[in-house]
Amino acid sequence: METQKLSKSLIIYYSLIAIPLAIVGLPLYIYLPTFYATDVGIDIAVVGLILFIARLTDVFTDPFFGYLSDKSVEYFNSRKPIMILGSLVLIFSFYSLINPSLDYPEFWLLVFSILIYIGWSMINIPYLTWSSEISQRYEDKTVLNSSREFFTIIGVLIALIVPYIYKVSQNSQETLEILYLSFLVLFIPLFLVSLKAIKIKLNSINDKFSIKSVKTIYQNLNDLKYLQIGYFFNNLANALPATLFLLFIELIIEEKDSSGIILILYFFAGILALPFWNMLSNKIGKKNTWLSSILLACSAFIFVPFLEAGDLTAFIIISLVSGLSLGADMALPTAIQSDMVQESKRFETNISGLLFGIWTMITKLSLALAVAASFIILGIFDFEASNPSVTSLLVLSFLYGLFPVCIKLIAIFFINKYTDKKS
After folding, report:
1. pLDDT at 201
2. Alpha-carbon distance 184 to 131, whole Å?
């Protein structure tokens, strides 16, 4: 591994894969449920249940694929074989999802939803693990993770804008088809370029994997559990407004048609702020910078419960301010995790992939719980999107704005227990 400063070209080569991976993510959350409910004809409740089962399966398989990533190092001295296999699974399952069998649509949706998540994990977990292996320098891991998330946001913006450019945004099937084509055109060359350019020297003899090593790592690195608990609560707080965004802007702000432009502005703010967070982390450390970004997001969302119908300008300002925190929230936690993974290597064991598998499991678990918790709570208050009561709208505002702030305060408590590894 290099100890000298990373070249700009290597940083870019590492980050390229993030663009097409981001393009895959958006259709799964926004367009796929509508496509199967309206075009394919599956009951919307059944679609929701199938996708929840697939997502739940995905949550608990991530540590396994982290384990396989480490076994790939043991046998091939590289994580690339599992990434190549995952790429084939991802391309095939994405194509199959948007070309369903009309004879067994429910079974088709379940199987290929699970497969697309598997393909994603087989690429993404080794990919994240690279950030702890390309360089040992504290600053480099911040740069690598920031650059990756910068390219991720670019991918999200491409996925948001392309359907509007081709004027297919109102048609779920045509949108999915154009996004699949965009993904394919970008993924194949960028993935191959990154695989060729990223060369990590690993010692497969000293890096023998043992599942018992997990206990040793957690016993000797107390900060790791505080980091992961704090990350879980912060992710849960972020996932709640993401889950309820469309409902909030339609029923509270009553500006449904503005949802697309607000999302674009939100992610664009994240891109603009990334260099600032990067610079700040070099001055005050990753932990303090991350905590600062969380407090900034809280300062914006605390005003959400006061919003009413027609307050579009105020909502845009809140979205822009919280968007400024996006870059730090995406890049810094994983950069800190990379520091911890590097620290774990002092114990002469190779569980880097497994640790990142647990990390992505925490990410997905928080997303799943956000969906479950928000809709269960809304259900308790008899929420109906077609005819919401005053009480249910107050609950929606609380879940979108104030509740995430409370959860972020819990996250701050645990993150603050972590000791930054800056040397």
Report:
1. 66
2. 24
